[in-house]
Amino acid sequence: MRVTGAMQNMQLVNNLQRINEGMTKAQNQLATGQKITKPSDDPIGVGYQMRYDTDLARSDEFLNNAQTGSEILKTMDALMQQASDVMKRARTLTLQAANGTYDAEQRKVISAEIKQLKEQLVTIGNSTYNGRYLFNGQKTDQAPYTVAGAAGESTDPGTFSLYVSPAVKVPVSLTGEDIFGKAGTDNAFKVLDDLATALDSNDTTAISASLGKIDTVADGFSLGWAEIGARMNRFELMENRITSEQTNLKEMRANVADVDVPTVITDLKMKEVVLQSALSTGARIMQTSLLDFLR
């Protein structure tokens, strides 16, 4: 086949265009850090990239849930410390009041502090996290207790849980009755109410009997506290697991979509050399005239 000058010129232009397209692609990859800027770059890779992106987005939600659960339980852990301190103080005061050397007036002074401790315990029971009440089951918009009626008030029995994987949800909340005792029994609030009444009436027998009830309440606090600790550990384990899974997903996504910068820079430099060579060669070819062939 006879190769004409026009054909040579056209081939040269096509080659230069391919080189420029390759350089433009390499420059875009360096600018974006991504190997795939449009589906046609790698149709199979795009499918993997979309799947990894979806998995990472869903994983972020689960990680956020695990972190939220941990923060809520840390708040509850601190509240249990406060509640435990309240009952320790109540026990110390009860031991003092049970002493036969105390008179009625001194016991009334202790009663005033016991009433303050009861109000503090109600405040703890009405604690919130981000505006949501912690100890009222699923009724997180309603305070579970009042100062006047806490001893007989029931809390919502529902459980607030958070998903930490597509099929796993972990309970976060504990009801007030799980912590402070059931309504209508010798729960923490009733024990303090009865103790204050006994102190006001100078009933030493009832005062002494309150010691055992205070210890029972404290034991209930310890059980609730242990459950909170167990849940904290579970959320921590799930958080570590999700973080590890995300690391693997990001690595797999990077293998599909992220640019190997040194390789792309080297490829771009090579294309620049090829372009310069092509331009130089093309300039010589295009300057050839009919007289050159007749010499």
From TrEMBL:
<keyword id="KW-0282">Flagellum</keyword>
<dbReference type="Pfam" id="PF00669">
    <property type="entry name" value="Flagellin_N"/>
</dbReference>
<dbReference type="InterPro" id="IPR001492">
    <property type="entry name" value="Flagellin"/>
</dbReference>
<feature type="domain" description="Flagellin N-terminal">
    <location>
        <begin position="7"/>
        <end position="140"/>
    </location>
</feature>
<feature type="domain" description="Flagellin C-terminal">
    <location>
        <begin position="212"/>
        <end position="294"/>
    </location>
</feature>
<dbReference type="GO" id="GO:0009424">
    <property type="term" value="C:bacterial-type flagellum hook"/>
</dbReference>
<protein>
    <submittedName>
        <fullName>Flagellar hook protein</fullName>
    </submittedName>
</protein>
<dbReference type="GO" id="GO:0071973">
    <property type="term" value="P:bacterial-type flagellum-dependent cell motility"/>
</dbReference>
<dbReference type="InterPro" id="IPR046358">
    <property type="entry name" value="Flagellin_C"/>
</dbReference>
<dbReference type="Pfam" id="PF00700">
    <property type="entry name" value="Flagellin_C"/>
</dbReference>
<dbReference type="GO" id="GO:0005198">
    <property type="term" value="F:structural molecule activity"/>
</dbReference>
<keyword id="KW-0966">Cell projection</keyword>
<comment type="similarity">
    <text>Belongs to the bacterial flagellin family.</text>
</comment>
<keyword id="KW-0969">Cilium</keyword>
<dbReference type="InterPro" id="IPR013384">
    <property type="entry name" value="Flagell_FlgL"/>
</dbReference>
<keyword id="KW-0975">Bacterial flagellum</keyword>
<dbReference type="InterPro" id="IPR001029">
    <property type="entry name" value="Flagellin_N"/>
</dbReference>
